[in-house]
Specification:
Elements lengths: L12 E3 H8 L3 H13 L7 E6 L7 E8 H11 L4 H17 L6 H35 L8 H8 L3 H10 L3 E4 L2 E4 L1 H5 L3 E7 L6 E7 L1 H27 L1
Helix pairs in contact: 1-2, 2-3, 3-4, 3-5, 5-9
């Protein structure tokens, strides 16, 4: 049975053992998938804990506590056909947790309604943001090559001028000497690599910035969140 840990905490989690039961996989396969995705930068390495075994005799079993968004990535990598089951189960568990918080006054009821709407909006944004990232994990997780700016723009289905404006406004890349250069902290995070070279014909020295496989996965999620924000802003303007 799936359970929520710390329903009142900032983030609820699901154990890797529970995910294994959900997708009908062996737990060791789930553990390897979690560690592989974390090494590739697709998810954050979750908290590890030891719990008592349900079997005979005292025995500790290790498991990860995985957040909601990352659980979608893990399940999509293991068994995409179970993603809908995971979404349904999260909604069921969160509805159970919310039912325990019965408001004691009209003001408290209003606050609860506002908080629930915020949760709904946040969940919709998380799902929209995670969807392209899941697709990129599937397509590029095993890749060791890098991608150019133009290749990534094409993969995202965005026009290059619009993509450049987004990268510049989000302080991801900036123009330098006629070339687009990543900000240093994104290079340090492993999202870009910069290769120095010299043009064979002109002898001009250049620095070519390219997205790493980790960077491709990351920018897919950032672009999706940007699109969600634009849609929400447009909806607010229409409502006003």
């Amino acid at each position: 049975m799936l359970t929520l840990q710390n329903p009142g905490a900032a983030e609820t989690t699901m154990s890797s053992r529970e995910i294994a039961d959900l997708v009908e996989k062996r737990h060791d396969n789930v553990l390897r998938t979690v560690e592989t995705l974390a090494a590739r930068g697709a998810i954050t390495l979750p908290q590890f804990e030891e719990v008592s075994s349900d079997g005979p005799g005292p025995r500790a079993i290790g498991q990860y506590r995985i957040g909601k968004r990352d659980s979608y990535v893990v399940v999509a990598q293991l068994s995409p056909e179970f993603t809908a089951r995971l979404v349904d189960r999260w909604q069921e568990l969160e509805a159970q947790a919310q039912a325990l918080a019965v408001p004691q006054s009209f003001a408290a009821a209003l606050r609860l309604a506002a908080e629930q709407q915020d949760v709904i909006d946040a969940q919709a944004a998380q799902l929209a943001a995670a969807a392209p990232a899941l697709d990129f994990v599937e397509r590029y997780a095993d890749s060791t090559g890098t991608k150019s700016f133009r290749q990534v723009a094409k993969l995202l289905g965005v026009k290059e001028p619009e993509f450049r404006r987004f990268l510049h406004s989000q302080k991801i890349m900036y123009p330098l000497g006629g070339e687009w250069t990543p900000h240093a902290h994104h290079i340090d995070a492993g999202r870009f690599c910069v290769k120095a070279g010299t043009a064979q014909v002109s002898g001009h020295a250049y620095n070519a910035a390219r997205f790493t496989p980790k960077g491709v996965t990351w920018i897919a999620g950032e672009w999706a969140k940007h699109q969600v924000a634009l849609r929400q802003r447009a909806g607010a303007e229409v409502a006003a």
